[in-house]
Amino acid sequence: MHLTNTKVIHESNGWRVDFIGDDGDAVTVYVADAAYIDEHTAVDRAREIMIGLTAFGTRGGGRSVNSYDAASNGNFDDGEPLLTRH
């Protein structure tokens, strides 16, 4: 996905940032409890959130090589990632 557009919407309790790609795919990040920050800072924070998530699943679904790697990639013995969203 090559980023072509970023939509930023201020909501009552934070910011919704939509990163939109040239292929139509989109990633939405909600920056919660951030109603007091400005738009530029909200986009920066949304990027930081996405960077933090890139550690999950970076081994192509394979097992982690050690406990530190498991913690940073979210791979645990039960096969469930540390962070799940429903």
Structure, explained:
This protein is an alpha+beta fold and 86 residues long. It is built from 2 helices and 3 strands, in the order βββαα. A 3-stranded antiparallel sheet has the order 1-2-3, with helices on one face. Strand 2 and strand 3 (26-32) form a beta hairpin. The chain is globular, with a radius of gyration of 15 Å. Mean pLDDT is 76; it is low at 75-86.
Strand element count: 3
The assigned structural class equals alpha+beta
**Low-confidence spans: pLDDT under 50, at least 5 residues?**
75-86
Strand order of the largest sheet: 1-2-3
Short summary:
The protein has helices spanning 39-53, 67-73; strands at residues 3-11, 14-21, 26-32.
Strand and helix map with partners:
Layout: E1 3-11, E2 14-21, E3 26-32, H1 39-53, H2 67-73
Antiparallel strand pairs: 1-2, 2-3
Q: What would the keywords be for this entry?
A:
86 residues; alpha+beta; three-stranded antiparallel β-sheet; 2 helices
